[in-house]
Design brief:
Blueprint (H helix, E strand, L loop, with lengths): L2 H56 L5 H16 L22 E3 L2 E2 L3 H16 L2 H8 L2 H35 L2 H5 L22
Antiparallel strand pairs: 1-2
Helix pairs in contact: 1-2, 1-5, 2-3
Length: about 200
Amino acid sequence: MGVTEWVLVAVAGLAVLAWVLWVQASRVDRLHRTVLRSRATLEAQLFRRASAALELAASGVLDPAQALVLTDVALRATDAAPAALVPDRLEGRPAAGALGEEEEAGTVRVDRGLVESELSRTLRTVLGSPEDQAELAGDARAAEVLTHLRQSWYRLQVARRFHNAHVEQVRRIRARPVVRLFHLAGRAPLPEPFDMDDALPTT
């Protein structure tokens, strides 16, 4: 082949490579967006569970001490909602400080996983054994609230599993040599999973 043919082959090869890289970069970007959507869904389910916990505390079926403790923990969960679920800054939030404790001046980073896990443990303690739960469900004041709580809690579990599965998919693809070599993820932070105790009470 002459010089012209070799040049055409090289140009065609570069075009194919550019197309392959563009496809890979587009896939990485789509997966990042999927993580953000699943994270927003998870946020919504966390809020619904905390709201259901507050409804249970205000229903009048718990003893005053249990209602007070549950209200306190559920309010801390709702108050923590403005904080990021995980400190990966994928949503574009400010970076943590040098010690990883402050995101902005005067703002201490809240560990959402710990707060939500505490709510799970408090709810399991308040709901008690299957017999205790059956007794609560027999009270007309609590039946609908308990149904709402169980549904929101189950949806929370599903949402967290989907979110973490999407995060794992992104991390797996970003670990590929071609993605790392050509920086196809751009400057997007590496997503992190959200860990918490979300086990439902024994029924």
